[in-house]
Specification:
single chain; ten-stranded mixed beta sheet; 17% helix; 311 residues; globular; four-stranded antiparallel beta sheet
Length: 311
């Protein structure tokens, strides 16, 4: 465990908070903590509104800024390393290990890939993110111009991504396009999470390829051009093959019934293996590859990893 320096979380009050007491608002909007926990924080003077320390019964108005000054806390231990895959004056691409958050979220503030990368590349800004328990390629821009151009390519679906995943069951198909829309749905703890939804979802497309089997499980390569949150996990679940050990998504692409896990919970195997895009300055095509970890390798890939022996 590592003690961080604490953080000030800011929340601008919208129309949905007008007329609510501070305690009611916090309990309804930030369900990661109980009403009792918010009450204790208010009692310790950790929350303020427009610079004034709050009481639990203060009525909120639109446009004001609510701040929670969270005291320093112990962050769970995480891997604190990465490998550089590509580096130039505009971009840097690294391979993130499983278990390391890309950016601050979910109880992690300083133990992140962004913190580690900025220690070496102070101007780096992430162009996308991977879930904490997803390994593989993360691309950073080193200039404003590179960030703008690559971000535009991402919005135009001109960036190709391939993931390696281990799914449950054996499909009857070899290749399948999956186009279920992805959007926010209800979650008992967080309020909402992204999942398959025909009503709130945005367009998403994945193409899954079967590349091997392991008992009653299947290794997939999944190509995506859209980048919805948790897209590969959701789409393989929609196809009837949720990731083995996924605590959140069930077959069909919805959160598991009863007590679903959180998006940041681990237990599944997912790896961002390839990234294809046009370099923002040179305009040359770039294709980056990060070999999958051994637990996501095919038999042929595992044999290739073994040292050669003399006859």
């Amino acid at each position: 465990m590592t003690l961080n320096g604490g953080y000030a979380y800011r929340d601008r009050i919208g129309l949905d908070g007008v007329g609510m007491t501070v305690l009611a608002y916090l309990s309804a909007r930030h369900r990661h903590s109980s009403r009792e926990q918010w009450c204790e924080r208010l009692g310790r003077g950790e929350l303020e509104l427009n610079g004034t320390t709050l009481r639990a019964d203060v009525i909120l108005e639109a446009g004001r800024t609510l701040v929670w000054h969270r005291p320093p806390w112990d962050e769970p231990d995480v891997p604190r390393h990465y490998d550089v895959l590509h580096e130039d004056a505009s971009l840097v691409a690294v391979i993130k290990p499983r278990g390391l958050p890309t950016m601050a979220a979910g109880g992690f503030l300083e133990g992140t890939l962004l913190t580690l990368v900025r220690a070496r590349y102070p101007d780096a800004r992430p162009l996308h993110r991977l879930g904490r328990h997803t390994s593989g390629i993360v691309l950073f821009a080193r200039t404003h111009a590179a960030a703008a151009l690559v971000s535009r390519a991402w919005r135009d679906h001109a960036v190709g991504k391939r993931y390696r995943a281990l799914g449950a069951g054996i499909p009857e198909w070899e290749t399948r396009a999956i186009e279920a829309p992805i959007g926010p749905v209800a979650h008992p703890v967080l309020g909402t999470v992204h999942a398959a939804s025909s009503t709130t979802g945005k367009r998403a497309r994945s193409v899954a390829h079967v590349i091997g089997h392991r008992g009653g499980m299947t290794l997939f390569d999944v190509d995506i051009t859209t980048g919805r949150p948790h897209q590969v996990r959701i789409h393989l679940a929609c196809a009837g093959h949720p990731l083995v050990g996924d605590p959140l998504y069930a077959a069909g692409g919805a959160p598991r019934a009863g007590s679903p896990g959180l998006p940041g919970d681990g237990g599944y195997l997912l790896h961002a293996a390839r990234l294809r895009f046009v370099h923002p300055l040179s305009k040359d095509p770039v294709e980056l590859a990060a070999p999958p970890p051994p637990d996501l390798c095919t038999d042929a890939e595992l044999r290739a990893l073994q040292p050669a022996t003399c006859p």
